[in-house]
Amino acid sequence: MQEETFIAMQQSIVDGAPDTASELAQRAMAEGVAPLDAINLGFVPGMRTVGELFGQGRMFLPDMMASAEAMRAAMAVLDPELKKQGAERPTAGVVVLGTTRGDIHEIGKILVGTLLTANGFQVHDLGVDVSGEKFAAKARELKADIVGVSALLTTTMRNQRTVVEALEKEGLRSQVKVMVGGAPVTRRWAEEIGADGYAKDAMSAVTLARNLMQATAELNCEPEPCETKA
Ligand code: HCB
Predict the structure, then answer these.
(1) CA neighbours within 13 Å on the CB side: how many for 93?
(2) From the CB of 39, is ligand 1 less than 6 Å away?
(3) Ligand 1 atom closest to Cα of 203?
(4) I want to staple 166 with a disulfide (CB 3.0 to 4.6 A). Which of 48, 136, 146, 182 is the partner?
(5) Cβ(205) to ligand 1 under 6 A?
């Protein structure tokens, strides 16, 4: 039964049907489907199909925009459900999130922000087309622990490097960890630009953010081991 719902969810994204996507998300919540399953097994595979069809020239920009609209409609239902899970937890860390300069893709970033929030992180989303300077200024203002930078285009992923550079220029690099992601981004690229980590999806971004917080905590314990300070 759930399998059918997931297939219908996927199709609603491919069809670019926001009303159907929203209804399916609402029905799934009423039936007790985990919001994360609805995202990962239902809607996100739909978005992946859309990308493949576009890449093969079987779908065009207006269709892709309609699909993004449908994804947004589903997330409008699922986002509050996920955030509820994080509401009662103590802050796991402060994250400044955004899509890099020249890039307006936001769905993956929103998903990362939602899951980080659901897992107790305080997330400040700067939106899309964000310059390195803007990332650095917000990181300073909020005393951020982590900056998360998304890029979906091969032409804009290089701007992830400018975020690292802006943090260096502002003298913030030793205090702020940088994690990068987005479809064309790889672990190797993250290493090349001097980021602290790469996450392939939103769940991995949560694990990575936790690990980065742990690494910072351990660093702050030096030269004594952390255990002795508890
Ligand atoms: Co867009 N687009 N697009 N697009 N688009 C892609 C990205 C292509 C791969 C499609 C293709 O050719 N097959 C392609 C890029 C090719 C390339 O550079 N290699 C492409 C292109 C070419 C373009 C335009 C240039 C098209 C044009 O105008 N001719 C244009 C660019 C505009 C610009 O940014 N300046 C464009 C526009 C659009 C929209 C507006 C129609 C729409 C975006 C709407 C929106 O976001 N509001 C759109 C969409 C929807 C896509 C696809 C179909 C889906 C992207 C998406 O939402 N994926 C995409 C195809 C694809 O990626 N397969 C296509 C779903 C999310 C959940 O995955 O990878 O974004 P994600 O995020 C993951 C993961 O990467 C990770 O976690 C997320 C959640 O699991 N992650 C992070 C992401 N950020 C992270 C940050 C971290 O710190 C950690 C982890």
Answers:
(1) 27
(2) no
(3) 80
(4) 136
(5) yes
Per the CB < 8 A criterion, the answer to whether 31 and 82 are in contact is no
Residue 107 in contact with ligand 1 by CB distance below 6 A: yes
CA distance 183 to 39: 17
SS3 assignment, position 178? strand
Task: List the one residue out of 173, 171, 216 whose CA is nearest residue 194.
Answer: 173
pTM of the model as a whole: 0.89
Is any atom of ligand 1 closer than 6 Å to the C-beta of 190? no
Q: What are the tens digits of pLDDT across the range 72-129?
A: 999 999 988 887 776 666 788 999 999 999 999 999 999 899 888 878 899 999 999 9
Residue pair 146/95 in contact by the 8 Å Cβ criterion: yes
CA distances to 36, 125, 167 from 220, in Å: 34, 27, 20
Beta-bridged to residue 181, according to DSSP, are: 150
Retrieve residue 192's tokens: 């090349």
Locate 33 and state its tokens: 């489907």
